[in-house]
């Protein structure tokens, strides 16, 4: 196969607003190193991580909710998920689905010609469980908002599915994040899981994956989205903002407590989420779109014997499990919008409005 020397790509030039994202038609095509594969990108999911990194929201100097715009004060020492600077310019985009078109000298040559999904956690494969040695695809290395990308051959898996590449690109980031949260909270049959932000990529993934584990699901989202979310079969749908959450749970479930809270929202509702946890309950978090700074009553935490887990870097088997769930037909893709690479700015503006259900997917 004859490959072009250049490609189209959306390139992050610095931290800030959308003007930091440049659409280029002449960006150098990457070459795979010895352990890497070269993927011709067919689709790449859009995620909050992209927006938060671009805007610098991860910086400790930022205390407001995620807005998608640039922030006036961003500490250049900690603008990313890992609390450290990244090299710029950078091609973002983690959820790549595409065809392997070339491999490095040490990579698995049998992958050539196969459609693959990417595992987004870049690991030291001599020490793969060491979270301090991880990076993120599209953050610490160029990702998939381009026609071609490279990644270690151990970070891809061929997938046998009737789903389109656009549908498959909705899974990797959102669903591994959700599965990681549920794993850390030890969710199982008999649990009742309260999910905030249920209409987003991670939230809708949490619904499906918690149901897969046999749990009862209480999903919170804007009421305008309830009809579509009902297709995922949560046991109860509640509004995003509830004046008396315990009373609403009592009315809809017969109990005013849940065993698990899976939260990606944070903000002002944080205290009420801990209040409705049963004694010995578990709170797991992987996001704070409504704001990272919360009121936290330590008495609620320790007097109720609550276990709290943060969830970011997942274990390697989580991605492998996800591909198995997809191939078994256990999961449903929710494609909210397909965004051509050339229309990336407009797509990210629509994504930030949060009026959608499921995932946005960028196509070259």
Overall pLDDT level = 95
Structural class: alpha/beta
Low-confidence stretches: none
CATH class of the largest domain: Alpha Beta
Report on this model:
Residues 16-362 form the Enoyl reductase (ER) domain. One of its GO terms (molecular function) is oxidoreductase activity, acting on NAD(P)H. Keywords: NADP, Oxidoreductase. It is a single chain. The longest helix is centred in the middle third of the chain and has 13 residues, at 172-184. The protein is of the alpha/beta class and 364 residues long. The strands form four sheets. Strands 3, 4, 5, 8, 9, 16 and 17 form a seven-stranded mixed sheet that branches. A six-stranded parallel sheet has the order 12-11-10-13-14-15, sandwiched between helices. A two-stranded antiparallel ribbon has the order 1-2. It is globular. It folds into two domains: 6-170 and 333-363, Quinone Oxidoreductase, Chain A, domain 1, CATH 3.90.180; 176-310, 3-Layer(aba) Sandwich (Rossmann fold), CATH 3.40.50. The protein is built from ten helices and 17 strands. It has helices at 48-55, 165-168, 172-184, 201-212, 226-229, 245-253, 270-275, 298-303, 316-327, 344-352; strands at residues 6-12, 21-28, 36-45, 95-103, 115-118, 121-122, 135-136, 148-152, 156-158, 192-195, 216-221, 236-239, 258-263, 277-285, 307-310, 335-340, 359-363. Helix 3 crosses helix 4 (201-212). A hairpin with an 8-residue loop joins strand 1 (6-12) and strand 2 (21-28). The two termini are 19 Å apart.
């Amino acid at each position: 196969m004859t490959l072009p020397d250049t490609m189209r790509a959306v390139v992050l030039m610095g931290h800030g607003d959308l003007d930091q994202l440049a659409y280029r038609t002449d960006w150098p095509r990457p070459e795979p190193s010895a352990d890497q594969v070269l993927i011709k990108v067919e689709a790449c999911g859009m995620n909050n991580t992209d927006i938060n990194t671009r805007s610098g929201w991860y910086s400790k100097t930022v205390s407001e909710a995620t807005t998608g715009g640039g922030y006036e004060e961003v500490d250049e020492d900690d603008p990313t998920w890992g609390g450290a600077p990244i090299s710029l310019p950078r091609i973002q985009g983690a959820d790549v689905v595409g065809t392997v078109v070339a491999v490095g000298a040490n990579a698995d040559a049998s992958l050539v010609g196969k459609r693959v999904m990417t595992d987004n956690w870049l690991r030291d494969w001599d020490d793969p469980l060491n979270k301090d040695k991880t990076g993120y695809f599209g953050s610490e290395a160029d990702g998939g908002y381009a026609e071609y990308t490279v990644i270690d051959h151990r970070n891809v898996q061929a997938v046998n599915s009737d789903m389109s590449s656009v549908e498959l690109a909705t899974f990797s980031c959102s669903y591994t994040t959700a599965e990681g949260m549920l794993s850390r909270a030890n969710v199982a049959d008999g649990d009742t899981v309260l999910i905030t932000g249920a209409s987003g990529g991670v939230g809708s993934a949490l619904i499906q994956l918690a149901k897969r584990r046999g749990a009862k699901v209480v999903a919170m989202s804007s009421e305008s989205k309830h009809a579509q979310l009902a297709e995922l079969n949560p046991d109860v749908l509640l509004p995003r903002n509830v004046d008396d959450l315990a009373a609403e749970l009592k009315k809809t479930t017969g109990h005013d407590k849940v065993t698990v809270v899976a939260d990606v929202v944070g903000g002002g509702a944080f205290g009420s989420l801990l209040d409705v946890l049963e004694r010995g309950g578990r709170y797991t978090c992987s996001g704070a779109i409504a704001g990272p700074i919360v009121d936290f009553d330590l008495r609620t935490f320790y007097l109720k014997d609550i276990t709290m887990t943060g969830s970011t870097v997942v274990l390697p088997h989580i991605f492998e499990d996800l591909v198995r769930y997809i191939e078994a037909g256990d999961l449903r893709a929710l494609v909210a919008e397909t965004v051509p690479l050339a229309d990336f700015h407009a797509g990210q503006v629509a994504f930030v409005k949060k009026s959608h259900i499921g995932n946005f997917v960028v196509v070259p």
